[in-house]
Amino acid sequence: MYRYMLMVRRFNERMLLLQRQGRIAFFTESNGEEACQIGGAWPLNRGDWVYQSYRDAGMCLVRGVTLKALVDQLMGNADDPNKGRQMGAHWGYKESNMVSLASPVGTHIVQAVGTAYAAKFKKDKTVCFTTFGDGATSQGEFHSALNFAGVFKVPVVFFCENNQYAISLPFRRQTASENVAIKAEAYGFEGVLVDGNDVLAVYKATKAAVDKARSGGGPTLIEAVTYRMAGHSSSDDPNRYRSPEETEHWKARDPIKRFRAYMTKKGLLTEQEDRAMQEKVENEIVTVIKESEKVPQPPVTSMFTDVYAEIPWYLKEESDELTREGS
Ligand SMILES: Cc1ncc(C[n+]2csc(CCOP(=O)(O)OP(=O)(O)O)c2C)c(N)n1
């Protein structure tokens, strides 16, 4: 878990640098949310379905997506399984049962419930796990999804990464409720509030919810309380709407520092091992970036593939024209 947390942190830092250098177009950082992502994805089985958010690169890693696949996605190169067609950080990996994300906030929550309903209908033991931010809880889809899940008792885990902001809107302006977890009560199932900067606490809460869903106990809403230490995305300047003191307050609760301190105290990690692990992670990322940058862009005509079994004549004409103009 610690290694994955380090990896996603370094990945975040590196990707922001690449964006600033113009080597990728867009990125959504998740510094501070590593405990949510790693502890949240950890209890899931390989065959479970995940409807993740654009901030969940760490969950992708836990689900077996390679670092290279993540970098390929952000570069939109020919090795990206989505062939560069998705917006940056809109992860989707078929082999890992991670469903491609649509930009409109909250839309994937209802899709997750539909998939969970299908699993129940087919009587298989699949659990559906969906993650979203505090902002998404104001969307109609969130409420429809929770209501349906409660009524039909489907095997779904709703995982809200409450990072205190929806772009610039602070959580206290998002809802008049005491917290997000409490909202589950209105839909007739359990809501759990957990310290989202404590990876073991997140694991424990998620494991219980996943086990419950798998054994027919129905849905759970987990609210992991955390903090988005960086901007909303590479296009955002958080200094315009929050104070440095607030960020410092949360940086002192950094989930990686906390887990490191815990393991050191327990005698599970030495300073030397830690340093070696950090170096290894750094080297891995640098190597992957070099590899991904060598991969060419997908051919422009690939935009005409994968939609029709047989390409209609008018698209064929456009494709030919594009090839002629491009050459
Ligand atoms: C329906 C809709 N409204 C607005 C947006 C613009 N938008 C993109 S991300 C975002 C904030 C979402 O905040 P939250 O759900 O808390 O997730 P976080 O970014 O904090 O992880 C907004 C408003 C959008 N993509 N879709």
Short précis:
By secondary structure, the chain is of the alpha/beta class.
Tell me what you see in this structure.
- This protein is α/β, with parallel strands linked by helices and 327 residues long.
- The protein has a single domain, classed as Thiamin diphosphate (ThDP)-binding fold, Pyr/PP domains (Rossmann fold, 3-Layer(aba) Sandwich), CATH 3.40.50.970.
- It is 44% helix and 10% strand.
- It has 11 helices and 7 strands.
- The strands form 2 sheets. Strands 1-2-3-7-6 form a 5-stranded parallel beta sheet, sandwiched between helices. Strands 4-5 form a two-stranded antiparallel sheet.
- Helix 5 runs parallel beside helix 6.
- The model has no long low-confidence stretch (mean pLDDT 97).
- Thiamine diphosphate (TPP) binds next to strand 2 and strand 4.
- Give the amount of beta strand, in percent: 5-15%
Structurally, the number of domains stands at: 1
Main β-sheet, spatial strand arrangement: 1-2-3-7-6
Bound small molecules, deduplicated: thiamine diphosphate
Could you name the ranges where pLDDT drops below 50 across 5 or more consecutive residues? none
Q: What count of helical segments does DSSP give?
A: 11
Structural class: alpha/beta
The CATH fourth-level homologous superfamily: Thiamin diphosphate (ThDP)-binding fold, Pyr/PP domains
What about the largest sheet?
5 strands, parallel
Intertermini distance: 49 Å
Rg for CA atoms: 21 Å
Q: Which CATH class is shown?
A: Alpha Beta
SSE succession: HHEHHHEHEEEEHEHHHH
If you consult CATH, what is the topology?
Rossmann fold
Kindly state the mean pLDDT as a whole number?
A: 97
CATH architecture: 3-Layer(aba) Sandwich
Shape: globular
Helix % is 40-55%
What is the number of beta strands?
A: 7
